[in-house]
């Protein structure tokens, strides 16, 4: 099923379809309107000095860009003012509550980095890198994890001959960041890069925090406790994220799901509601209704588009693009979309890498199995032509899939997309 909307034509424009990552344009719209371009996440370390050392309370607020380096910098500020001994540490992780993944998210995405949980304890993308290489035939493959103390994986991937039937690798997610890999890999396979999400946020964060204490030269021998709604001590130091507009640009260009879902939940928290997917969804619907959009039939489950229960029409997305053009506050988002053939998720999109579309399409893509979407603008001179193109239920036979994989032919939907967008280019007044 193909649905599209342009200034002078439409097809199945009101049909509800899976938006995938094009939903991020909705998240960006509401975030910028509600929070403002200069909004920053504040991560606070509050301190109560004592003869036994500092009593520390770390108030985590779900900053999706927060890193170990930022945490060390906070601890160093405290050390400079109050010394190197720590008596106790409490962590407030109450910012986001409820489920750490959205309703309708595909279960076997869990454990993969692009589906890392949006947590109050976000740090270093909640993600760990690794790679898999074949070993000798009949023996286990070689698995490398960048940090095995953060994630333990039992590798049971067997190396098989290059003539073996197709192999699969399956990841099983257990408790406390204990995973297992099963299946096989062919002996002639190249190194397979892997990126794993964490599943136990407190365990992961505790390890990061203990390492950061050591890097800052702070002495602490106790246990880290996690509590809800901790009142800050009178003394404090803060870390501020980059302004929201920069975070949204990263979210759009790189299609970063952690940023999208963290911002999504923050929308609810900033209205003094629970930081859950359900409450955030209500906020998004209310805000878009206030902007004149009708969401009575739409279904919004998250901010990233990972949930397969998200349903939005091409017409609704087109109205969002029109808002970006007409609302001075939202116009800044247009130039922060990926650029065809140049940046982010559109850099290598084969439908957009040649003239006249290269560098002239600014758009957000959306892709999951069976879904190929594109939402944005064609730029010609100083004019912008909004468009929405959504394809759901996409399926190739084995021969077509093999030809596309080997780059012998362009994916049929991308071919359609290229031709349709070139028609839009020609339709410019």
Topology:
Elements: E1 2-6, E2 9-11, E3 16-17, H1 24-35, E4 42-48, E5 54-59, H2 68-82, E6 86-92, E7 127-133, E8 142-145, E9 152-160, E10 169-173, E11 178-186, E12 192-197, H3 201-215, E13 224-227, E14 235-240, H4 244-254, H5 257-269, H6 277-290, E15 312-313, H7 314-326, E16 361-368, E17 371-380, E18 383-392, H8 398-405, H9 412-426
Parallel strand pairs: 5-6, 6-13, 9-11
Antiparallel strand pairs: 1-2, 1-18, 3-15, 4-5, 4-14, 7-8, 7-12, 10-11, 16-17, 17-18
| Total helical elements | 9
Which shape, going by the Cα principal axes?
A: globular
- CATH architecture of the largest domain, by name, is 3-Layer(aba) Sandwich
The strands making up the biggest β-sheet line up spatially as 2-1-18-17-16
Q: Can you summarize the main beta sheet?
A: 5 strands, antiparallel
Calculate the terminal CA-CA distance, rounded to whole Å. Answer: 29 Å
Percentage of residues in strands = 25-35%
Rg measurement, Å? 24 Å
Structural class, from secondary structure content?
Answer: alpha+beta
- Number of structural units classed as domains: 3
Low-confidence stretches: none
Keywords: Carboxypeptidase, Hydrolase, Protease
EC number: 3.4.16.4
Family: Belongs to the peptidase S13 family.
Protein name: D-alanyl-D-alanine carboxypeptidase
What does the model show?
- The protein is α+β, with helices and mostly antiparallel strands and 429 residues long.
- It has three domains: 2-39 and 243-426, DD-peptidase/beta-lactamase superfamily (Beta-lactamase, 3-Layer(aba) Sandwich); 42-99 and 200-240, D-tyrosyl-trna(Tyr) Deacylase, Chain: A (3-Layer(bba) Sandwich), CATH 3.50.80.20; 122-197, no CATH class.
- It has nine helices and 18 strands.
- The two termini are 29 Å apart.
- The mean pLDDT is 93.
């Amino acid at each position: 099923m193909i649905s599209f909307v342009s200034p002078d034509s439409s097809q199945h424009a009101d049909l509800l379809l899976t938006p995938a990552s094009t939903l991020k344009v909705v998240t960006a719209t509401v975030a910028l309107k509600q929070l403002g371009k200069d909004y920053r996440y504040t991560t606070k370390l509050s301190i109560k000095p004592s003869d036994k050392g500092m009593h520390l309370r770390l108030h985590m607020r779900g900053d999706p860009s927060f890193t170990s380096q930022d945490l060390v910098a906070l601890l160093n500020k405290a050390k400079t003012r109050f010394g190197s001994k720590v008596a106790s540490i409490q962590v407030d992780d109450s910012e986001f509550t409820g489920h750490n993944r959205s309703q309708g998210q595909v279960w076997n995405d869990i454990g993969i980095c692009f589906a890392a949980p949006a947590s109050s304890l976000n740090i270093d993308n909640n993600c760990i890198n690794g790679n898999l290489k074949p070993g000798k035939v009949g023996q286990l493959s070689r698995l490398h994890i960048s940090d095995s103390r953060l994630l333990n994986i039992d590798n049971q991937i067997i190396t098989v001959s290059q003539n073996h039937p197709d192999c699969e690798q399956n990841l099983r997610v257990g408790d406390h960041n204990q995973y297992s890999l099963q299946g096989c890999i062919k002996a002639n396979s190249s190194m397979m890069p892997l990126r794993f999400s964490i599943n136990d946020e407190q365990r992961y964060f505790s390890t990061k925090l203990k390492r950061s204490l050591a890097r800052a030269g702070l002495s602490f021998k106790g246990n880290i406790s996690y509590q809800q709604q901790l009142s800050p001590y009178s003394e404090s130091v803060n870390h501020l994220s980059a302004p929201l507009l920069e975070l949204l640009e990263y979210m759009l260009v790189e299609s970063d799901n952690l940023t999208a879902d963290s911002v999504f939940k923050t929308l609810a928290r900033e209205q003094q509601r629970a930081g859950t997917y359900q409450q955030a969804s209500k906020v998004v619907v209310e805000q878009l209704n206030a902007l004149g959009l009708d969401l009575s039939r739409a279904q919004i489950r998250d901010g990233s588009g990972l949930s397969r229960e998200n349903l939005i029409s091409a017409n609704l997305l087109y109205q969002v693009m029109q808002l970006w053009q007409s609302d001075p506050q939202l116009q800044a988002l247009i130039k922060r979309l990926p650029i065809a053939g140049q940046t982010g998720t559109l850099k290598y999109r084969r439908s957009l890498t040649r003239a006249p579309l290269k560098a002239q399409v600014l758009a957000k893509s959306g892709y999951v199995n069976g879904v190929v979407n594109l939402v944005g603008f064609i730029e010609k001179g100083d004019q912008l032509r909004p468009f929405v193109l959504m394809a759901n239920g996409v399926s190739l036979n084995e021969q077509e899939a093999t030809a596309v994989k080997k780059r012998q032919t362009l994916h049929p939907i991308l071919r359609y997309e290229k031709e349709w967008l070139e028609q839009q280019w020609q339709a410019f007044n």
